[in-house]
Design brief:
Two copies of one chain form a homodimer. The first copy, chain A, folds into two domains: 13-47 and 315-414, Aspartate Aminotransferase, domain 1, CATH 3.90.1150; 53-313, Type I PLP-dependent aspartate aminotransferase-like (Major domain) (Aspartate Aminotransferase, domain 2), CATH 3.40.640. Chain A has twelve helices and 17 strands. Chain A has helices spanning 16-30, 50-63, 79-90, 108-114, 133-142, 197-210, 250-253, 285-296, 302-311, 314-340, 364-375, 401-414; strands at 37-38, 102-105, 125-129, 148-149, 154-155, 158-162, 181-185, 213-217, 243-248, 261-264, 270-274, 280-284, 345-347, 353-357, 377-378, 380-381, 392-396. In chain A, strand 11 (270-274) and strand 12 (280-284) form a beta hairpin. In chain A, helix 2 (50-63) packs antiparallel against helix 9 (302-311) and helix 4 runs parallel beside helix 5 (133-142). The longest helix of chain A is centred in the last third of the chain and has 27 residues, at 314-340. Chain A is globular. Chains A, B: This is LL-diaminopimelate aminotransferase. Chains A, B: Its EC number is 2.6.1.83.
């Protein structure tokens, strides 16, 4: 008689963005003709840039001819893409990452959900609070938490690192024993905050001293505008022995519907393991992830990997930089407008998210409902990202400029 | 101090196809100029058909325009694709599957590796022997096995269902307690055998009687030529309460490099669960997989889903049927030639794999080395699929007809 994985039952209700989608659907059903402006989910709106479209067409043609058709690709991705990443994302930043340390995937969501598998089930986990729900939910599903405390909005057994205006949204080291796995995301989703070089270096040192692994999500690095913010954790000394990095083409080049990402596992991440027969063995996390990747995944589509390569061409670099600049103009506009309207505003400088304090004593969901009902504007309730996100709210800069201006005008008009 | 998932260390050596790739690379290095014919890995060689190429170009163009650009898609895939599957893969076969019971994915390898996650870690697992390694390896990685016995080539705690010429490659029910999870694959990889309607119905009945779940891999259904072989397990009565089906576009339409598959989880698969507070709750496996899918995956690319849709157009159906027929001509040629050459030959009638008994007392790897060294032909050693695959060998029909003929001539010339 089979049994289910009961850890799934610990997860309360549905996934944040599903809930939002349902509320919005109910609103639009009830208010036909009213135009809803969506600044909730972090999905891009600009089409793929010409360099990428051209590369896709070319690759599709290759797939239609016997001489150039490609079936199963190399397990960790095509070298043409990994080599570009080495050059542009690492060498250019003074970071030492080799091509074979990069594993191409179908996106950072898959990787950030799957990476926990290579660690023991009794590993302790630390996440920032608020946090991108995937890090937490996937560890709950694997059984690394106790039960959910609905009143507090937290899981037993998980270490939460509060990130609020009071600490400038920068996590402090937890009291007591160091966690085994530490998820960090900079520029941060949802707060838009960044870890500056010095702050990130302190975490790298902490991980090395305590035998922790940092799972560093760099999905938003293309949005960094300030000089002292690392684009990769491998800009920090010692990161090769303690950090795995997750990268994405979703926000950098608008690939949310195309699906491409990468995980970097340096060979220097090694662990001594005692075998049952008393001998010890040194195991590379690279070997474990390679095995996971090769056994449960069969590569990102060839045509999509060619699209990724095109992002690094001269035209691709220019065109994707223009997209990023377009979204950042939205972020800047929101930041300034909301500030003028009297809100406490954060993020938006090195990230496509603006993070605001809700007015008065409103909860995040009250503010969500108010904006939806009175302004037909959709954002994301901060409490959906964790208890310390309560009384905060996320606006995404991924809409059109016109919609951004219109949404801000509608919010200003509410005089909250 | 973090610890690794030590279950990974139970896996012996590297993945079967990696080992083959390394042996072939060593051979080609040593024998420059000698043309190796690859009939090992089950990768297709024919280019994508015109209907699919056309759909890809059209979808790429849509991604390049703001009005038609698509970002994140629906969590379980676009309805345009799921609806086609309902019509062609289920309704047309007299099987009742609803559109929302289908989850589109990036391929059957991912799904067949990930599906075990929704079951408890102490679930018992049965696999056919020989078997596609992914079913087994992913359960080992999750911790559902004991140690590997290198001498016997089996894991403790796993139920192996021998499939050999003696039982016509059809698994018998295991002695003793019924396993919780039963992996079945028909047409079978690697043996090319099929489960006829009656045989599959017996397994469905067995699963329903014993509270087991069947994980049915239908990746090769397009190769079925005989009438009494089910194309989907849902042709069997009662399958909706005990079976999850895995489907793939890889072999059906040559999508190995494009990545598209689907998992079907009927709403009737329900499990009563006792909560800590003594109450019971009925949980749908559909809800669990939906949660898994929505949390750790972000959809197959829009353009690839459009390509999948095109497979069901009139042209797509005709063109992919031609591809399948082309490969089946190879299978037929191999079957007849090897038989004439005195081999005991199986499969090849409803499957793109021909499964032969190795000549004399040769082990599978001895036969592999002989074919590689003396004929420059690569196949897959049966023992790589499990101990009961020893003394068998798999030939893939996915090459060109010319290569197939040439390979068979080379093997005949060896007079084994």
């Amino acid at each position: 008689m089979y049994q289910i994985n009961e850890n799934y039952l610990k997860l309360p209700g549905s996934y944040l963005f599903s809930t939002i989608a349902k509320k919005v659907a109910a609103f639009t059903d009830a208010h036909q003709g009213e135009r809803v402006i969506r600044m909730g989910i972090g999905d891009v709106t600009k089409p793929l840039c010409p360099a990428v479209i051209q590369a896709l067409h070319k690759a599709v043609d290759e797939m239609g001819e016997a001489e150039t058709f490609r079936g199963y690709g190399p397990e960790n991705g095509y070298a043409f893409l990994r080599d570009k990443m080495v050059e542009f994302d690492y060498k250019a930043r003074g970071a030492e990452i080799r091509s074979d340390e990069i594993f191409i995937s179908d996106g950072a969501k898959s990787d950030s959900g799957n990476i926990q598998e290579i660690f023991s089930l009794d590993s302790t986990v630390a996440v920032c609070d608020p946090v991108y729900p995937v890090y937490l939910d996937t560890n709950v599903m694997a059984g690394r938490s106790g039960d959910y405390d609905a009143a507090k909005g937290i899981y037993a057994g998980i270490t939460y690192l509060p990130c609020t205006a009071e600490n400038d949204f920068t996590p402090a080291f937890p009291a007591g024993k160091a966690p085994d796995l530490i998820y960090l995301c900079s520029p941060n989703n949802p707060t838009g905050a960044v870890m500056r070089k010095e702050a990130l270096q302190r975490w790298v040192d902490y991980a090395n001293e305590n035998g922790s692994v940092i799972l560093f999500d760099a999905a938003y690095e293309a949005y960094i505008t300030e000089a002292d913010v690392p684009h990769t954790i491998y800009e920090c000394e010692g990161a090769r022995t303690c950090a795995i990095e997750l990268r994405s083409f979703s926000k950098k080049a608008g690939f949310t519907g195309l699906r491409l990402g990468a995980t970097v596992v340096p060979h220097d991440l090694r662990k001594k393991v005692k075998r049952a027969d008393g001998t010890t063995e040194e195991v590379e996390l690279h070997a474990l992830w390679s095995r996971r990747h090769g056994t449960k995944f069969n590569g990102a589509p060839y045509i999509v990997q060619r699209a990724g390569e095109a992002v690094y061409s001269a035209e691709g670099q220019r065109e994707t930089a223009e997209q990023v600049a377009y979204y950042m103009r939205n972020a800047h506009y929101m930041y300034e407008t909301l500030k003028k309207a009297g809100f406490s505003v954060y993020g938006g400088v090195n990230a496509p998210y603006v993070w605001v304090k809700t007015p008065g004593d409103m909860t995040s969901w009250e503010f969500f409902d108010t904006l939806l009902e009175k302004a037909a504007v959709v954002g994301t309730p901060g409490s959906g990202f964790g208890p310390h996100g309560e009384h905060y709210f996320r606006f995404s800069a991924f809409g059109t400029y016109e919609d951004t201006v219109e949404a801000m005008a509608r919010i200003q008009a509410l005089q909250l």
